[in-house]
Amino acid sequence: MPEIIAHRGASRERPENTLAAFRRAMELGADGVELDVHRTADGVIVVHHDPAVKDESSGRLTPIASLDRAALRAFRVGGEPIPMLAEVLELLAGRLTAYCELKGRDTTRGTLECLAKAHAKGAVHAFDHRQVAEAQRLAPAVPRGVLEASYPLDSLHAARTVGARDLWRHWEHVDEALVREAHEVSARVVAWTVNDAALMERLASWGVDALCTDDVALARTLFPR
Fold first, then answer.
1. Cβ 30 vs Cβ 4: under 8 Å
2. Is 7 a catalytic residue?
3. From 7, 38, 125, 129, the catalytic residue
4. Is 103 part of a structural domain of the chain?
5. Tens digits of per-residue pLDDT, 75-113?
6. Would residue 127 count as lying in a domain?
7. In the list 14, 77, 149, 181, which could disulfide-bond 20, CB 3.0-4.6 Å?
8. pTM for this entry
């Protein structure tokens, strides 16, 4: 039974990376949520995919790193406010795992501090494996993952280098041999972003540990608790 991770929350039904999306993911029975973090000018870790926020009326983009927390409150995603990571963790209340992608620069320490303060079920992962290495140094007990969108000759090299538990791999670069190789060293394979029923079932048959999906309802229908 693969773990069902809601990609940016229940993003098929609610604006992505918002409290509404994470609340809906909980209602649909997700096991965890995947979210993206950035750091404001005053050091607050916030949840948003892109490095800049868009004014929904003018379309103007403003870098998150140039705004303080108060200024960021004026922006919306599909009418919903941009949440702080601390708010998301409070909502999840330890019931769902928060998989935090270290998307922005200088987000590692602040994210780990948020997880520790909230006593949250959480993990961190990134395409920038230097940030994962930093997480290993700062908080070795927090599970780590490496993001990849390719199939390197040594599939587990990056994971070994930073002591990662999770191998986040785009589903096109996942096969049964990779899953078997990962399990031999007690690593997990997280396939993203999986929104097709037949693909979900095929990946699960190979023993993939988690499916990161926009369609939590579909995934939970296929893999009921």
1. yes
2. yes
3. 7
4. yes
5. 999 999 999 999 999 999 989 999 999 999 999 999 999
6. yes
7. 14
8. 0.97
Do the domain assignments include residue 212?
Answer: yes
**Residue 155's domain is classified under what CATH number?**
3.20.20.190
Q: Give the span between the Cα atoms of 82 and 205, in whole angstroms.
A: 37
Helices marked H in the chain = 19-28, 69-72, 85-92, 108-118, 129-138, 157-161, 176-184, 197-205, 216-222
Residue type, 69: R
Within 8 A by CB and 6+ apart from 99, the residues are: 5, 32, 33, 34, 35, 122, 123, 124, 125, 145, 212
Residues, the chain: 225
- Residue whose entry in the numeric block shows the structure tokens 């000018």: 41
- Count of CA atoms in the C-beta half-sphere (13 A) of 106: 8
Residue 57 scores a pLDDT above 90: no
Which of these is catalytic: 38, 48, 49, 129? 49
CA 107, 13, 3, 119 torsion-angle sign: positive
Domain enclosing residue 189, as ranges: 3-51+85-222
For the chain, what is the domain count?
1
126 closest CA partner among 36, 44, 190: 36
Q: Find how far residue 134's CA is from the centre of its chain.
A: 17
Q: Is 48 a catalytic residue?
A: no
